[in-house]
């Protein structure tokens, strides 16, 4: 495993360490060396514009050349028409390989001819090889409509029904859960719908605002929850923890090795995110040590870990999982030194576009991780 330490020149071998430990807390250096970036880490012209292809899925008639010409014409028309719906599958992707979808079913800041808000179904996979959108009037919003729409995605694109569908709106849990279970699909409430969340922001800027029914200033009908943090369940307790750093190149190495090195953990499609960070830039993270590291990592693996936040007001770390569950993950003594270190860690996250990680080990001096999760802070979508 690539080691995690405070030394920016060490990329591979040093273990997670406590530096001048204070109640199992690691002191943290200043982050003046981080490049200035927008909080999202994604410049406007980088936000997945090349990934959202407006294409037809009909690929089985006429000649290949005529198909290409027709698709290019349709693409051009759809690019100019914000009312167009998408139905796209990357022709180089094996349909059988797409086993998990990300889904949003919610109203948009668009009014129909009745003056009622239009609803939209948006479906993708985490690589955006699958992209599907469809508008609905507000008087047909129920689990039956959603169930039929999910089947339509499968039929139109020629892909099997997924094993899992992730969604991030707690208000739609009943409808989505019922539709999924009737189709034998596992519904997964999770804010780790990174591709979907970024796509929704992209659609807001390039589609919804150009729609003839767009209502400027319209607030989301189903806002995301941000509840008060709860006490951490006993099975999630660690024994020691430390703020640490890992060079970006080593983070990429850890993610690429998840399938071969670890039983537990989760990465992100860094290419898709479009975050441009130098290989030597230090990514902030949290290292947690426990003598029962494997059971701890196993429990964490089933929680859809989303992000970690240093709350300097409460002098604690907050772990966000699932859709709207927040735990007080750890506490520390509220002193000027500790507050400064927590603020520096949060500043480091912002400088890296919200990128950070969680590593679980048997011991903070160990060279190996039992689990590794790459995390990303994202603001709620504008819709």
TrEMBL record:
Residues in RNA-binding protein Tab2/Atab2 C-terminal domain copies: 220-375
Any one GO MF annotation of this record: RNA binding
Biased composition (Acidic residues): 70-83
Protein name: Protein TAB2 homolog, chloroplastic
Domain (RNA-binding protein Tab2-like N-terminal): residue spans on this chain: 101-203
Pfam families in the cross-refs: Tab2-like_C, Tab2-like_N
PANTHER family in UniProt: PROTEIN TAB2 HOMOLOG, CHLOROPLASTIC (PTHR34556:SF2), PTHR34556
Ranges where the record places region Disordered: 63-95
